[in-house]
Amino acid sequence: MRPAASGAGTASAGVPSAGYEVGQRVEHAIFGAGVVRSIELAQDGDQRLVVEFGNAGTKTLLAKFAKLTKL
Questions:
Q1: Residues spanned by the domain of 40
Q2: pLDDT digit string, tens, across residues 24-37
């Protein structure tokens, strides 16, 4: 297995990126605009996103169910 280029296709702690990056601004239909604070690998292989929303506080969401729009 080859190491990935610095910052290419990986998120925090070497977790593969599904298009989200720490620090990225996103929007959710209910929670509003927010910022991705961390990305972890869930047990089922999905990504667990910790997103800080301005009006709704910090939420932990599974990427496959989150329906986030990248801003």
A1: 12-70
A2: 999 999 999 999 99
